[in-house]
Amino acid sequence: IMRPIRNHLIAAGVPVEGSKGEAEAGQEELNIKYGAPLDCADHHTIAKHAIKEIAWAQGHAVTFLPKWHHEKVGSSSHVHQSLWKDGASLFYDADKPHGMSDMMRSYLAGLIKYAPDYTYFLAPYINSYKRFQKGTFAPTGTAWSVDNRTAGFRLCGEGTKAVRIECRIGGSDMNPYLAMAAMLAAGLAGIEEGLTLGAPLSGDAYAAKDVDHIPANLRDAAEALKGSKMLREAMGDDVVDHYTRAATWEQEEFDKVVTDYEIARGFERA
After folding, report:
1. How far is Cα 256 from Cα 258, in angstroms, rounded to an integer?
2. pLDDT per residue over 167-207, tens digit each?
3. Is the dihedral of CA 114, 38, 14, 68 positive or negative?
């Protein structure tokens, strides 16, 4: 099924770099070439819709649910970010540690500082938060690291002109337009505020102390979004209020449902 997916996407103008099998049976990673944010969001959206249709035509079903089974590894949407001007990377400085320019350091500091504010746009549903589990390569904290997949932000291309930051928080269910807009707003806020970046984390980020955590559930993410002055300035009150209400409604609807787990665990025990 992956060969038709790759071939059809490329024929449709989506710049697929490749695909590979991931941690679970039937789980695949699709890598799409970098580009301008809006182009990347378009490619992301086209790919998701096309994959569902191509899979159906091949007699298969596809889900982008981040955690379709509690014993299986979740699915993500990792976003690599860098700023460029006139063909040159504004993130690269050969004379700085790791090749990270001062602008890049402030941008990343903004991503970290405001991660709780925009987590909803990276994880917009109840199920999204089931993915954030220790030992699964899905982050639980907002630390940054050098090529460390347990942290929320990973430095890639260290010391080269391709230096960039990978945000590992996003799930496979995220809206790429909202997610990229929110992350850009956070990074640019970091530059405008002249934020200072702390030292990179080394070792297991799950066991690290003094690391801020991303919201643990949709309810907490909605509250963080609602109170975000940064996103209200960047996106406007109407946008923030609309998606805060969408998140709250999603949580309220879930709270009404009696799950199979509750029945199996408590039907006779209660």
Report:
1. 7
2. 999 999 999 999 999 999 999 999 999 999 999 998 888 98
3. positive
- pLDDT recorded at residue 203: 87
Distance separating alpha carbons of residues 242 and 249, to the nearest angstrom: 11
Query: What does the pLDDT look like over 65-123, one tens digit per residue?
Result: 999 999 999 999 999 999 999 999 999 999 999 999 999 999 999 999 999 999 999 99
Could you tell me the CA-to-CA distances from 30 to 14, 55, 75, 177, 215 in Å, in that order? 11, 14, 11, 18, 27
Question: For residue 72, what are its two tokens?
Answer: 């299986």
* Phi-psi label, residue 144: left if phi above 0, alpha if psi -120 to 50, beta otherwise: beta
Residues 6+ apart with CB under 8 A from 24: 72, 73
Residue at 8: amino acid letter: H
pLDDT at 221: 98
Cα separation, 58 vs 66, in Å, equals 23
State the CB neighbour count (10 A cutoff) for residue 54: 19
Query: Residue ranges of the alpha helices (H) in 58-195?
Result: 102-113, 115-122, 176-192
> What gap in Å lies between CA 51 and CA 165, rounded to an integer?
27
Cβ–Cβ < 8 Å for 163, 212: no
Q: What is the mean pLDDT of the chain?
A: 95
